[in-house]
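job 3f2a | input accepted
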Amino acid sequence: MAKQTHRNRRLILVPCPYQGHITPMLQLATVLYSKSFSITIAHTISNSPNPQDHPHFTFLPMPDGFSDGKFVQEQTVANVLVISKSCKEFLRQYLEQQQEKLDENIACIISDEFMFFCEEVATDLKIPSIILRTTNATTSLARSGLVQLYKEGSVPCQDSQLYEMVPDLHPLRFKDLPFSLSAGFENFAFLIDKTYNKRKSSAVVWNTIECLEQSTLQQIQQKSEVPIFPIGPIHKLVPGSISSSLIEEDRSCLSSLDKQNRHSVIYVSSMGSLASLDEKEVAEIAWGLANSNQPFLWVIRPGSIRGSDWIELLPQGFQEAVGERGCIVKWAPQMEVLAHEAVGGFWSHCGWNSTLESIAEGVPMICKPCFTDQWVNARYLSHVWKVGIELEQLERGEIERVVRRLLLEEEGKELRARAQELKGKFEVGTREGGSSYNSLNELVNFIMSF
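job 3f2a | predicted structure (450 res):
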């Protein structure tokens, strides 16, 4: 189909204002722009993406109800509910104005699964809508199963049951269920119900790939009344490179990696964009890394150590002990770091974007999840895909042992070999004729049918 016939068809994309949700939405926008659609990003004022990084897109800031500065990153469920209430009417008025224009056609709205108000507005205005799910497919089953277990009185469970298997969700244990501890369960259950039940969108786009979740995707499609399009990892389909980070990346760490041997460095980004640690936990990580005697690149996000602005609370003598073997930065260009030949392992919180990016570069992982879907991802990384080691305790001796297992021992070589095998499957799936490549083309044709 000729490209010029697409460009007058505009897509409105609405991300949830968290780094792990903004990144895949902007990646999807870039992919669809390359297919000659016009793109508008309707985003909250809080945690807004930088328009200068995406000059070909139109950006629409939406008042989100947090102008008084009460956007608390950790209160995800409460934030989403406030955003839904605050943005809904604004988006409706904007779309009504756009519908009156004759020079451009709104083909559809693509919204993050948590931005369910978009679907309600689209339905009222008779505009097609599509959902983007930014977690893996297994997490959706686990979330729905968790709500059902709550209704049955099986959760919250006793501490003695945490390591028991969840019925019908093998190999997940009760401790792996994706519950947000910062939310009351009633609010959480309400959000999950709005996210997964009785949706009216025309399709679901999933940032996952068949080689990881074929049976789960088949199970979901069999029960779904609309088509699903697994097009992940979306970043592998993006032409060129884009920036979607809400935090400035320190590229100087790449030159430090250049000085290290192949597969010798452990890359540590264990808190992601949300989690935080106290001084004792940071000390255990620091001395575990130091005592491993292995080179490391450690990302410590400003404000992520409670009680300090950055690294003021690192233990005394730590930096002197590690010398040039350790590099600490505020934020890193993660995909470039993972692609660097010096990196031999990734200690991660196991967010889904980080998980896909690590597998895509064939890098095995140390898994220490912090909350929600990260527990599901960590369990699958270690027990299903078998490219990761679970770190159960933030204790310096355990950290030292796990780092050395991954970088130096035969177990680490086996994990790396499996990660490399999955990397190859990702490459096959995202190039011409592959499952994600074909699914993307089907999505484009589906949008064009509206």
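job 3f2a | The chain has 15 helices and 13 strands.
job 3f2a | closed
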